[in-house]
Write a structure and sequence with these properties.
With 933 residues, the chain is α/β, with parallel strands linked by helices. It is built from 35 helices and 28 strands.
Length: 933
């Protein structure tokens, strides 16, 4: 018996495991998102791991920007940095900065010369993996040919799962030719937008192409391309890699002859390499070993983040190098990664931080491989086995009879599993799933408990049936004995029927209703002890508030909800009248019946009666069949008449009769139909004025207004704005990781008067979510969304601006004048000006850009004249002239690919969204001028 029960438990555990696998597969996006959160938690909980001392980051930080100037810098600066690093003995220079557009030919050539001379500089390539339409086929062939020499060659086998490149962004020709190699910097974002994996190899046409980190690392480890073995879904093996730091001569770039020679050689199974890019140092075998990198079938490797990026790796700034502040041997034989991350560019979301620089990600990719501290995911078969085991173990907890023991056993099982998962991750880098095995364990335990409960019930029913049979036999014997007795019991029926006269039904109903209203009115005042409980009840019905007036209105709604009284909800547009009507219905005894919403403003005057009360076939032209009407369709439920003040006056008397008699007469019929409908109406506060002006039926208003509920405007309960904003973020953020709104963003929302109330607030929050680029919605996001709301009907009307032929005054208003005065005093130093004006640097920059564009437009695009006007002094004009030229070039670079002027204007409004809107008319003039050339 015990063995049979164990078999049943194991069977239940297996079934629960299978159902868990099916369920998690059907809702894979949700479960994957949760699973990734457990992965992140493990990584944060784990202590920092070792990093290779050979990795050094050179960052463009604020100190460098203050010393050198605004980003981007002239390429001569980068040439100097490369020369410095080369002279310091850096073994590899991974220059994670795009140089995909030519700026100044001289500076481009200097950078190319420095790169060629160093013969150790790697540059990034940008790839687009999405389907791209309208791309010239010749362009595709061009970049495929250019990247061919840097690829791993053609792959013999199935590469369908690899990411396939549809478009590429390459360095300019001079820099590409001067580089030692290139690699892609495209990352793989998981469903929550965080980067946990990197595609080490991708597909360019029919060739395999390496990532930026892998391409440069091969050189550092002295691994030639014919010493790479790729097995998709398993590993990339770097054969005979140098495992300790050895000085050696830098390898030369391959010749055409060496490439051709290797094309004919196919040594590695599954891979044919078109060309070698790296040579090989002569190193003793004891210094070499094979490095096996685990990858999935998409060619991706899990990145083992060492810790907070600025705490785990050595960092130096551009200023340190340019000012010779470092010792000569700091970079000797090191792997140097140069990036612009520290100045706020290229920030990504990773498990450890939401703002992690791209250079730091490359450092972690390289460190993961150098230290061989890989993260390993079990294959699907192992994952399924774990789920089944946990499901069976959870089911076997059913052997314990007491429910307390079952809970304790399952808790211990899951605790052991969680601990195992954590330490396998921490010590061995093994990444096991948490949610699906946990779900299988709990599901198995619950299912066994349910089975036991049903088993006991079946046993109880069986025993009860046997007892009933015994009782039936006993009853038969008793009946036979009683039949032999001579005494007969006689039963008399007594029937008493009394009838009483009743008053008229409508009169009695009205009297009862008046008494109930008086009772509700007496009890309606909210006491302090009820406040929090009532707030929670309102929140359950999606009414978010801490405002006493609104909660008292909700309390009134709660008290009247169980009765069938007509209710009139008054309030401005957007205050939530329909939400209150829904709450009334949900708290009533009719909650399981229909809730019909009627927009009175959309009811046609000529069809109003037939819409409300229905009609008979043939009653008028077009009545080809019977129609029930809104009141009949909502019978036994609730009908909500929104904007009742907009209802045609001709319908008022008929609606009044329906409310009084609870009967309707369809158009074209003599038959009265009884209905049982609760009516809730809504309107603004001006409905009383309409009654006074004879625009609304007085008797109907009196009938509707027996129990009014008045909703306050949002400006009267601004204390609810933070909670409402948080609720709208939760409701509308979808897959964006928005945690809330910054303090100054909330303050900006609190300042506004909200003429369209909650509906307007919700629309603005939706816009801020779309615009937000951080975890928290910032002040600029709020301002931009509110400006969109204010000016949404004026788009396209700012282009017809008349520009004066001559402009002697460059600043228009007092604020602009003050800003320019302070900028002149600081020689146009944005940071110092921002501190003097107690403003944000970005705010000063955006306003200054707007002023520059305004004056450029007014001076017919003359940069020199504009600089002279704004500078106010010849000594400052030259520096300012460069800055204005930079602004203008950036503007033109953003519009030169647009098909027409309208698309260009739309694009610029998105890119320069933080520039005050008053300047867009001048930007439009510059765009129009560009398109006319």
């Amino acid at each position: 018996m015990y063995a049979k029960k164990m078999q049943i438990y194991i069977g239940i555990g297996i079934i629960c495991s299978i159902l868990t696998i099916i369920f998690t597969s059907l809702f894979s996006d949700v479960f994957n998102d949760w699973e990734l959160k457990t992965y992140d938690y493990r990584m944060k909980l784990r202590s920092e791991i070792k990093v290779s001392p050979d990795i050094i980051l050179v960052d463009i930080d604020d100190r460098s920007i203050n010393a050198i100037g605004r980003w981007p810098w002239d390429r001569t600066i980068h040439a100097k940095i490369i020369d410095k690093l080369t002279g310091s003995g850096a073994k590899i220079i991974a220059y994670d900065i795009f140089f995909n557009a030519s700026t100044d030919k001289k500076s481009d050539n200097l950078l190319a010369e420095a790169s060629k001379k160093a013969n150790r500089v790697y540059y990034p390539v940008g790839f687009d993996f999405s389907e791209v339409t309208g791309v010239n086929k010749n362009d595709e062939i061009s970049y495929v040919e250019k990247l061919g020499q840097y690829s791993f060659g053609k792959f013999i086998g199935d590469t369908n799962d690899l990411l396939s490149v549809n478009r590429a962004i390459l360095p300019i020709e001079e820099i590409l030719k001067a580089s030692k190699g290139v690699g892609h910097i495209s990352s793989n974002k998981d469903i929550d937008g965080k980067i946990r994996r990197v595609p080490l190899i991708v597909k360019v046409d029919d060739m395999l192409f390496p990532s930026f980190g892998l391409a440069s690392l091969l050189d550092y480890l002295d691994v030639s391309r014919d010493n790479i073995v790729i097995k998709l879904g398993e590993s990339i093996t770097l054969k005979s890699a140098v495992v300790n730091k050895i000085a050696g001569s830098m390898n030369r770039a391959p010749t055409l002859e060496s490439r051709a020679a290797l094309n004919a050689n196919e040594k590695i199974v599954g891979v044919r390499f078109i060309e070698p890019v790296f040579g090989s140092n002569q190193v003793n075998d004891k210094n070499r070993k094979d490095i096996v990198i685990p990858i999935d079938n998409k060619g991706m490797m899990l990145i083992n983040y060492a810790g907070q990026w600025n705490k785990t790796y050595k960092h130096y700034s551009f200023k340190n190098l340019l000012d010779n502040e470092l010792q000569n041997d700091v970079f000797k034989d090191k792997f140097v990664i140069v990036s612009n991350a520290a100045s706020g560019f290229d920030l990504k979301q990773v498990p450890l931080q939401n703002s992690y620089p791209g250079g730091g990600i490359h450092a972690n990719i390289i460190n993961t491989i150098l230290t061989e501290n890989f993260l390993i995911e079990p294959n699907s078969a192992v994952k399924i086995i774990i789920i089944v085991l946990l499901g069976i173990i959870g089911a076997l907890s059913g052997v314990f009879t007491r429910w307390e023991l079952k809970i304790a056993v399952n808790f211990i099982i899951l605790f052991i599993y969680f601990t195992t998962v954590y330490y396998l991750f921490k010590l061995n880098g093994i990444v096991l799933n948490v949610l699906s095995p946990t779900m299988a364990c709990i599901f198995g335990a619950v299912s066994v408990s349910f089975y036991e409960t049903q088993f006991e019930k079946r046993n109880a029913v069986r025993l009860n049936t046997e007892n009933q049979k015994l009782e039936e036999e006993l009853l038969k014997i008793t009946t036979q004995l009683n039949e032999k007795e001579n005494e007969i019991i006689k039963i008399q029926k007594e029937l008493s029927i009394q009838s009483t006269s009743v008053p008229q039904l409508n009169e009695k109903r009205d009297e009862k209703e008046e008494l109930e209203i008086k009772k509700i009115t007496i009890l309606k005042k909210l006491t302090p002890s009820q406040f929090e409980e009532l707030r929670k009840e309102a929140e359950n019905l999606h009414i978010i508030t801490k405002d006493r007036n609104l909660l008292e209105a909700f309390d009134m709604a709660k008290r009247v909800a169980p009765f069938d009284h007509t209710v009139l909800i008054l309030g401005e547009t957007g205050t939530g009248k329909e939400l209150f009507a829904n709450a009334l219905h949900a708290m009533s005894k009719r909650k399981k019946q229909k809730f019909a919403v009627v927009e009175c403003s959309s009811i046609n005057l000529s069809l109003a009666e037939s819409e409300f009360f229905g009609y008979k076939k043939g009653s008028f032209t077009g009545a080809v069949s019977d129609k029930a009407g809104l009141f009949k369709e909502a019978n036994n439920g609730t009908i909500f008449l929104d904007e009742i003040g907009e209802l045609p006056c001709d319908v008022h008397p008929k609606l009044l009769r329906v409310l009084q008699n609870r009967q309707i007469r369809p158009v074209g019929s003599n038959e009265l139909i009884d209905i049982n409908v609760r009516v809730i109406a809504a309107g603004d506060k001006d409905i009383a004025s309409a009654v006074n002006n004879k625009m609304f039926n007085t008797a109907l208003f009196a009938r509707l207004n027996r129990y009014p509920i008045v909703l306050p405007a949002l400006r009267e309960r601004k204390g609810d704005i933070p909670d409402l904003a948080a609720e709208f973020i939760r409701r509308h953020k979808e897959k964006k990781n928005i945690l809330g709104i910054s303090k100054d963003g909330i303050e900006e929302l609190m300042k506004y008067n909200w003429p369209n109330n909650i509906r307007q607030l919700e629309n603005i929050i939706i816009r801020t979510i779309i615009n937000a680029n951080n975890d928290y919605i910032q002040l600029d996001d709020v301002k931009y969304a509110m400006e969109q709301d204010i000016y949404k009907n004026n788009s396209g009307q700012v282009t017809n601006v008349k520009i004066p032929e001559e402009s002697s005054e460059c600043i228009g208003n007092d604020y602009q004048k003050r800003l320019i005065e302070e900028l002149r005093k600081t020689n146009f130093n944005i940071k110092e000006t921002a501190e003097i004006l107690n403003m944000g640097r970005n705010t000063v920059t955006d306003n200054f850009k707007g002023i520059c564009f305004k004056n450029l437009a007014e001076n017919n695009g003359d940069i020199k004249k504009t600089a002279n006007l704004i500078a106010g002094h010849p000594d400052s004009s030259e520096k300012l002239e460069k800055k204005i030229a930079e602004y203008y070039e950036n503007l033109i670079s953003n519009v030169n690919q647009c098909e027409n002027v309208d698309i260009a204007k739309q694009k610029v409004r998105l890119i320069y969204k933080n520039i005050p809107k008053e300047y867009f008319c001048y930007i439009d003039v510059l765009i129009e001028k560009y398109f006319k050339l």
